[in-house]
Design goal:
Elements (H helix, E strand, L loop, with lengths): L10 H27 L8 H8 L1 H34 L2 H12 L4 H6 L1
C-alpha cells in the first residue's frame, strides 16, 4: 500500500492572504488619496501646483524627506549587524538577544499602565 501523496502549498497560496490584506488596508486607501489629489470636480493638477508653489510646503516636504532618509539609513546601519549577530546565536544567548531587541517595543504599554 502506498502512502498518500501530499502536495505542498506553493508560494502564491502562502502570499495571497497577505497580498489581499495589503490591498484592502493600504493600496486602496492610498489610491483613493491619490485620485482625490488630482480630482476637484474634474481632473486637475491645481492642488499639486498650489502645494509646489507654496515655499513653506516645499520646505516641509524637504525636511520630511531628509528626516526619512536619515532614519532609514540609521535603521539599516544599526539593524543589519544586530540581525546578523542574532542569526548566529543559539540557546539562551539567542533568547536574551531577542528579549533585548523586543523589550523596547513594550515601553509604550508599560507607560500607559
Amino acid at each position: 500500500m502506498t502512502a498518500p501523496v501530499r502536495r505542498r502549498a506553493g508560494p502564491a497560496v502562502l502570499i495571497a492572504p497577505v497580498a489581499v490584506y495589503l490591498l484592502l488596508v493600504y493600496a486602496i486607501p492610498v489610491g483613493r488619496l491619490l485620485v482625490l489629489s488630482v480630482w476637484d470636480g474634474g481632473p486637475t493638477i491645481g492642488p499639486i501646483l498650489r502645494a509646489v508653489r507654496d515655499m513653506q510646503t516645499v520646505a516641509v516636504m524637504a525636511t520630511t524627506l531628509q528626516i526619512a532618509t536619515i532614519a532609514t539609513g540609521l535603521t539599516v546601519l544599526l539593524a543589519y549587524p544586530v540581525a546578523a549577530t542574532l542569526a548566529r546565536l543559539r540557546g539562551r544567548v539567542l533568547a536574551l538577544g531577542m528579549l533585548l531587541v523586543v523589550f523596547p517595543l513594550f515601553t509604550s504599554v508599560l507607560v500607559r499602565t
